[in-house]
Structures are given as structure tokens and as C-alpha cells.
Amino acid sequence: MRTVPRVACINDLSGYGRCSLTIALPVLSVMGVQVCPAPTAVLSMHTGFPQFTFTDLTDGMADYFASWAELDFDWIYSGFLGSLGQISIVKRFFETQKAKNPDCRILLDPVMGDEGKRYSTYTQELCDAMRELASEADVITPNITEACLLTGVPYRGESLHHAEAEALAEQLMTLGCGAAVITGIVQENTIGNLTYADGTAAFDSVHRTECLFSGTGDLFASVLCGALARGAGLRAAVRIAGAFLSDVTQYTLRENTPAAEGVLFEPLLRNLGGMIYENEKQRK
Ligand code: PXL
Question: What is the rounded distance in angstroms from the CA atom of residue 55 to the CA atom of residue 103?
Fold first, then answer.
């Protein structure tokens, strides 16, 4: 393992409204991971705001990855994609990196929508094509909306019983991914994440805040990626990410800021620094 694990992060850069790269960069850095951004689009604000500019970077992406041909990565974390054309470019990048380094792992956050709706720039074709990327991933982290879009299971709200969530995860596994984490499953006053790996489902939940903030999926996937890149097991990484999300959402709720601005993770970022992970404890 490299002293500083190296992660390629394929995601958009949104100038305002915490999400995607403006979350992944600080989170992975503070967790002791080198993050190499591959921007898919530049937006003035994320798509949850009424007005935003959107610059699609598809045309430059194949060359961008070609110039990385000599590099290898411990993890690839793929998030918001800007166009249908990006799917095949990203898929090729996954394949070339896996061929170069069989230990390279892929975390795919299939960013497509929330609360039963697709994000405004996500066409049905783009959602359908996301299944191709899921088949290449070691871990996928859909919320319930995204899990339904990927599997064709009808969306019935943010609340699922354990058995329903497990059945949804089993459907996701048929896409060919190595493991699935379904995020944001509401059960009364808790919110949980279901980890499905090695044929077994495990549920971890935390206290739920009443408000839905944008960017929480990006924050979860970023912390998860940081912990995995540092060598944590999947279930341990899910718990670390869930606990941090719980702290950050409670803090944000107290500050009473607009939901579209996202979660106020900055004052709590330092809590992610200096962590010792399971595999590192054994080495001591
Ligand atoms: O948080 C997911 C996300 C990422 N990137 C962009 C978005 C959103 C959600 O709205 O608009 C640009």
C-alpha cells in the first residue's frame, strides 16, 4: 500500500452549494488520501438552485484520462456524470486502470436523483447507461431513488423495512457490482444504510434529522471512499461515514441554513483527520 493512497475522483465542480468535488477534495485530503480530480462538468451552482450555468466537459475527458496513462490509482471514485457520452469514456478508464493494477478498486456513486425524482440534467438514457458502470464497480452507493432507477423497482418513498431494503440490494447485485450500500433508508426516527456484501445484508442506523440537505450523498460517498482507501473494511467504512453524516446534519440543522446550501461540514472536518483504521492498528 502507498504511504498516501491515491484516488481518482470523477465528479463535477459546482461553484456554489456544497456537493461533488467541493466536498470530495477537502474530505479525502483531511483523511490522508491524495485525490486527483477528473471534472465532468463545471456548474456555477448545483442543479438544485433555480438558475445555474452548466459547462459539459465530455469533449476533453478521453484526452484527460489518456494523459493519466502512466498513473495508477488505489481507488477510483465516480460521482456526477455530465452526459451520456461520458459513460463509455469512464468505463474505458475503469478497464484500463484495472488492467494496469488489478488491486485498483472502484467506488461508483450513481448520482441520478433523490426523493423519487431524477436531477434535472439526468436523462432517462443516462440513468439506463449507469447500469453499465455499475457492472464494473466494486462498491455502489445509491440512495433509494437511485436504487429504484437502476433496478426498475417502483419508488415508494424514503421508508423501507429491512426485508424490502435487502430485496432491493439483491436486485442491485444482479447488475454485477461487487457490493452495494443503499443509503438514506428512513425508519421512524432513524436513518440507515444497508450494506450488502458476500451474500449478507447488514443494517447500520443513526438518529435522523428532519431536514433533507443537498450533498449528503456526496459527503457519505467521500468519507466512505476515504476510509476504504485507508484500508478500512466496507462495514467499518459505512459506519464511519454514517456517524460523520449524523454529526454534520445535526450541526447544520442547529445552524438553520437553507437546505440547498448543503451541509456545514467545514467546522467538523477535522474530526475525520488523524483516524487510525483497522488494518493500521494491526500493523502497530
Ligand atoms: O449532490 C449530488 C449532485 C452533484 N452534482 C450536481 C448536483 C447534485 C444534486 O443536485 O446538482 C451538479
Answer: 33
